[in-house]
Amino acid sequence: MNAIRQTQALNKRELENAVPPEASWHADYRDTAYIYIGGLPFDLSEGDIITIFSQYGEPVHVDLIRDKETGKSRGFAFLKYEDQRSTDLAVDNLTGATVLGRVLRVDHARYKKRDNEEEEDNVAKLMGETTDRNARVEDTDDERRHKKRRSSDSREDEARSRPLLKEERELQELMMNHDDEDPMKEYLIEEKKEEIARALERDQAAITAITAIVITITEMGIDLALENAGIAVIGHYPGKSVPTETDHRQAEKNLTRRDRLCAPDPQYRERILKETIVDDHRDQIINGCCPSSSSSD
């Protein structure tokens, strides 16, 4: 702290007396472009130091002294400027500055390169590594955005290929007819999108758990017309043969147009000849056949 006060006192005296640069105490260090930086917060990296000190010139070399065993910062460093005059500005302006609660001491220094140092001017290399890291982070963010966009596009394609959910119809209504001046509109839209996502997940879970529909073919299907073709969709119960009245009603709730045309009257449901399995995803029979089903297409 005494060294900081001495430097600040020298600068104040020279400023008050209008001392010319050639007579300044800085002139004793015209042979070195290095400065010593003490009192650094231990969390600062070389890149952080370059960022702080580049406001007074172009740094070309930085040596943050680290513990040989742990690799952690010891809180001081040496920095070289491209232009020696930048050292005067850094010393005058950053001595006594507070960074993350710690007071910096900045002074001129005559630096001797260490034996294990590979190159003297390392700032370009250090900043290149920092730029590469930032680019990788940006790429990761871009990938996440693209993945999210692809997921959104796939949901839109899926919505076009199936009947709209109740929540999707509500979203369309909200987007087209809700007052644009309402500050809550955007929030309501996002909330509705979340509801749609939950509904899609719920439906997908149900499809995953139930992969087949049981269809029963009655003997009445041979003689009946298209509207009573004799195919009974009895629900997602592959192990059952004869449906209950409840099963019959539940199954009809989500029938396709073709299924509705083919659903038999309840009075024929006990006269079952055979059962067949339909692929719910491809809407086609896996085993068995039904002439009346194909004729309804």
3D structure, described in words:
It is a single chain. The protein is an alpha+beta fold and 297 residues long. The protein folds into four domains: 2-121, Alpha-Beta Plaits; 123-162; 163-209, no CATH class; 212-295, no CATH class. It has helices at residues 2-17, 46-53, 85-94, 123-160, 166-177, 185-209, 245-252, 257-262, 291-295, and strands spanning 34-38, 59-66, 73-81, 98-99, 102-103, 105-109, 212-218, 231-233, 272-279, 284-285. The strands form three sheets. The protein has a four-stranded antiparallel β-sheet. It has a four-stranded antiparallel β-sheet with strand order 8-7-9-10. Strands 4-5 form a two-stranded antiparallel ribbon. It is elongated and about 85 Å long. Keywords: RNA-binding. Residues 33-111 form the RRM domain. It holds the Pfam family RRM_1.
